[in-house]
């Protein structure tokens, strides 16, 4: 795949704006927002026995491996680990990943047909990495990765040609005529030519070359694939949320959850919360500072990226039935 063809070191950024991260214990693989860390950099190697496949080696010299061990009992996702190059591996484990392009992103597929997936939601799923086949629509994008090239491959020097034929010597040019003296007059009626008294014509100044054309969009895209500095995104809105129980109660002793939201409307926020929590039937509510009741949020978001403190209620809960139409009666 062309995204890896010239890459020596890459970073893989998930749908959650986090980077594939080799944990310090040299075994686990997680997600982390620190893209400047050496743990987020992976060396690309061509798989020796799989055409088009690659191997990704962490800073600890261990390969990104799709293991056969379930992440949680009863779940389909399996663990992704770091393993030593010479370590024995079960038959259902693989270190070869086949990159499949999807627009400007890539999916990494194992020989068993599973995809490298960056999980979201609540612990223990949050920041975990597994390999699986996505079944739910809300998690389809979790197998997409942005490939950021940190270091390009250095092309091998061309060997010098030996035994080449000698260059033929060109004949010497004839001497230039001597124009220092004007021709002599042949008689009393001939006068010297005036062309020798006039100065040589002056040369017009050479116009500077035109400026190069602006780079095309494709060149800008190719240049953006190679850099070593971490990405800097515009900070969005801070979202602080709790998940209420069936009656709408929240344990005030818990810290709650937070993330940065870069969207602009309520629909995008609901979709982001579904990814963060893994819940699909949620209602975004605010708590009244006067009577403490929960009210569904149905208008636009507060202006100026102001921070929001919200409570999530499931549509199937008892408290949702007390909300006005279209949620309750």
TrEMBL record:
<feature type="compositionally biased region" description="Pro residues">
    <location>
        <begin position="198"/>
        <end position="216"/>
    </location>
</feature>
<dbReference type="InterPro" id="IPR008999">
    <property type="entry name" value="Actin-crosslinking"/>
</dbReference>
<feature type="domain" description="DUF569">
    <location>
        <begin position="236"/>
        <end position="312"/>
    </location>
</feature>
<dbReference type="Pfam" id="PF22932">
    <property type="entry name" value="Ubiq_DUF_assoc"/>
</dbReference>
<protein>
    <submittedName>
        <fullName>Actin cross-linking protein</fullName>
    </submittedName>
</protein>
<dbReference type="Pfam" id="PF04601">
    <property type="entry name" value="DUF569"/>
</dbReference>
<feature type="domain" description="DUF569">
    <location>
        <begin position="1"/>
        <end position="145"/>
    </location>
</feature>
<dbReference type="InterPro" id="IPR054726">
    <property type="entry name" value="Ubiq_DUF569-assoc"/>
</dbReference>
<feature type="region of interest" description="Disordered">
    <location>
        <begin position="156"/>
        <end position="221"/>
    </location>
</feature>
<dbReference type="InterPro" id="IPR007679">
    <property type="entry name" value="DUF569"/>
</dbReference>
């Amino acid at each position: 795949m062309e995204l890896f063809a010239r890459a020596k070191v890459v970073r893989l950024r998930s749908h959650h704006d986090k980077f594939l991260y080799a944990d310090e214990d040299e075994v686990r693989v997680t997600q982390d927002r620190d893209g400047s860390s050496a743990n987020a950099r992976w060396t690309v190697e061509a798989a020796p026995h799989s055409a088009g496949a690659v191997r990704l080696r962490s800073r600890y010299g261990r390969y990104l491996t799709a293991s056969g061990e379930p992440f949680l009992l009863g779940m389909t996702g399996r663990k992704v680990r770091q393993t030593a190059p010479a370590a024995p591996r079960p038959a259902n484990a693989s270190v070869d990943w086949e990159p499949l392009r999807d627009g400007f992103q890539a999916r990494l597929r194992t020989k068993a047909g599973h995809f490298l997936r960056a999980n979201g939601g609540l612990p223990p799923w949050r920041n975990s990495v597994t390999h699986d086949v996505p079944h739910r629509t809300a998690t389809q994008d979790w197998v997409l990765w942005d490939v950021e090239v940190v270091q390009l491959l250095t092309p091998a020097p061309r060997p010098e040609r030996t035994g080449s034929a000698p260059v033929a010597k060109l004949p010497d040019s004839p001497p230039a005529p001597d124009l220092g003296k004007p021709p002599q007059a042949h008689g009393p009626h001939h006068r010297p030519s005036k062309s020798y008294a006039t100065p040589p014509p002056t040369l017009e100044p050479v116009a500077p070359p035109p400026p190069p054309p602006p780079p095309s969009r494709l060149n800008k895209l190719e240049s953006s694939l190679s850099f070593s500095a971490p990405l800097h995104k515009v900070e969005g809105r801070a979202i602080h949320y709790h998940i209420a129980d069936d009656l709408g109660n929240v344990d005030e002793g818990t810290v709650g959850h937070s993330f940065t939201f870069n969207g602009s409307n309520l629909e995008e926020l609901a979709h982001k919360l579904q990814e963060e929590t893994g819940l699909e039937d949620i209602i975004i509510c605010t708590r009244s500072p006067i009577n403490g009741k929960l009210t569904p949020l149905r208008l636009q978001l507060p202006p100026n990226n102001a921070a929001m403190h919200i409570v999530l209620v499931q549509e199937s809960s008892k408290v949702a039935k007390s909300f006005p139409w279209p949620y309750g009666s």
